[in-house]
Design a protein that fits this description.
single chain, about 25% strand, Aminopeptidase, 5-stranded antiparallel sheet, Alpha-Beta Plaits, 2 domains, alpha+beta
Length: about 475
């Protein structure tokens, strides 16, 4: 097996088993059955609610019965992205995993360590006969990656713990006590077509790093949809036959493509080369692989009318994306951002999808309304939805202080208590279960929500062992 030379074989075997089960958001039945079957085989009490969330419970080990109950929490779905040209089918194919002993990664797809590794850590602890802990519970939710739907459907009656450790973070040594809230913006415009006039070109933007629109938004990576729109903005005249880019709301688009017609194809191709040179200089450090290809292609049957083509391109070019505000209360943390996530054409309508995040709800709504106003000004219909609240930090958190002290004692390293710009389920669970106190921790995982996702082996094994040693220390 790929994990045969790694130290914590139980942890990696569980992760390997999980990775063989398709678990894209909305397709979690297989992983749910696995979890319930695993619990039965290991004689652990388990149940599932109407939403599909799974709950597990095991009593305290001898001598630790008086410790407060603790819930370990993760989510069972993953963001599924693959390299262009890959034949991988996320509805049926297992994730193909490899390791070089330093990192664990997947072939041609996202790895799903977010949050398969969180689940593996929980099951590793529950099945370790030498683990010591007080009353221990597990909450494993569905639909985290598509609006935190599982967390909203939590059945509070199944949970006795009032201390929760979320295992869905991606940087060891950070203890999160707050996160951003979110808002989805959907815009669309009806299309009118006519016969093409001019030479057809296929424009392809590729080679971008992409990544998590919360965790990587501050890294100044390029947005492929905006790059494509920036190219179109340079053309004196064009008509769009097709346009697409992006895969998920919470993924920074790493590729985009359009077929257009122009009167001067050579000038347009030259503009693509010039823009690529400019972008390679601009993103030499943060996103050096940017490629813009422009080549002649077969003439389309129909194209969008010229004025509407320009409106679409100008809207995508002027629409905000990336970091809007940095936090003034927590140094180095993004406060407000948005992701220009998806552009696609379906049933004679063009859709442009945005995801707004902020640790301040008023700024989240302000940026959302800014996008709505801009969209309507370009003739788009626009609506907001999918809102979820921010998780307000509690600097006095006893759980966070105990965890920080334990981390220093166990690892010899100092941790940082902070907030994260990505969305976590803790705030929602806290609001559903009165008196719940939460933190979020995890191992080093790079480039989540992308085909470059990698889990650090040493950090993953270290954090699994840390949580195991932390549990009997919580008072």
């Amino acid at each position: 097996m790929w994990y045969s030379k790694l130290s914590n074989k139980r942890l990696w075997k569980i992760f390997s088993d999980i990775s063989r089960i398709p678990r894209e958001s909305g397709n979690e039945e297989g992983i749910r059955k696995y979890l319930l079957s695993w619990a039965e085989e290991n004689r652990i009490e388990a149940s599932s609610d109407r939403k599909g969330n799974v709950y597990m419970r095991t009593p305290a080990t001898a001598g630790f019965e008086k410790l407060p109950a603790v819930a370990l929490q993760a989510h069972m779905d993953m963001v599924c992205v693959k390299k262009e040209g890959s034949a991988h089918d996320f509805s049926s194919d297992p994730i193909s995993i490899s390791t070089d002993g330093i990192s664990v990664y997947a072939k041609d797809t996202s790895l799903g360590a977010d949050d398969g590794l969180g689940i593996a850590m929980i099951l590793d602890i529950l099945s370790d006969p030498e683990a010591e802990h007080g009353p221990l519970e597990a909450i494993i939710t569905v639909e985290e990656e598509t609006g935190l739907g599982g967390a909203y459907g939590i059945d509070a009656s199944r949970i006795t713990a009032r201390r929760l450790i979320n295992l869905d973070s991606e940087e060891e040594g950070l203890i999160f006590i707050g996160c951003a809230g979110g808002l989805d913006i959907d815009t669309s415009i009806r299309l009118r077509y006519e016969k093409p006039d001019g030479t057809a070109l296929r424009i392809r933007v590729s080679g971008l790093l992409g990544g998590h629109s919360g965790g990587e938004i501050h890294k100044e990576r390029a947005n492929a949809i905006h790059v494509l729109a920036r190219f179109l903005n340079r053309l004196p005249s064009f008509q769009i036959a097709s346009i697409s880019g992006g895969t998920r709301r919470n993924v920074i688009p790493s590729s985009a493509e359009a077929v257009i017609t122009v009167s001067d194809p050579d000038a347009a191709i030259s503009q693509a080369r010039t823009l690529q040179e400019e972008l390679k200089a601009e993103y030499a450090v943060s996103d050096p692989g940017i490629t813009i290809e422009a080549e002649k292609t077969e003439a389309p049957i129909a194209v969008i009318k010229r004025k509407k083509s320009r409106k679409i391109a100008d809207f995508l070019f002027t629409a905000p994306y990336g970091v809007r505000n940095m936090s003034t209360s927590i140094s180095g943390i993004v406060e407000t951002s948005d992701n220009l996530a998806i552009v696609t054409i379906e049933n004679d309508r063009l859709y442009a999808i945005f995801s707004v995040r902020s640790n301040t709800d008023s700024r989240k709504m302000a940026l959302g309304y800014e996008i709505l106003t801009l969209a309507e000004g370009f003739g788009f219909k626009a609506k907001a939805g999918g809102e979820y609240p921010s998780w307000a930090p509690d600097p006095s958190s006893k759980l966070a202080k105990e965890t920080a002290a334990a981390y220093r004692k166990i690892t010899g390293r100092k941790s940082v208590v902070t907030a994260i710009h990505a969305g976590l389920e803790c705030g929602i669970i806290n609001s559903i279960i009165p008196g719940m106190e939460s933190i979020s921790i995890g191992p080093d995982i790079k480039d989540v929500h992308s085909v470059n996702e990698k889990a650090d082996v040493a950090s993953s094994e270290r954090m699994a062992e840390f949580v195991k040693k932390l549990l009997p220390m919580l008072k």
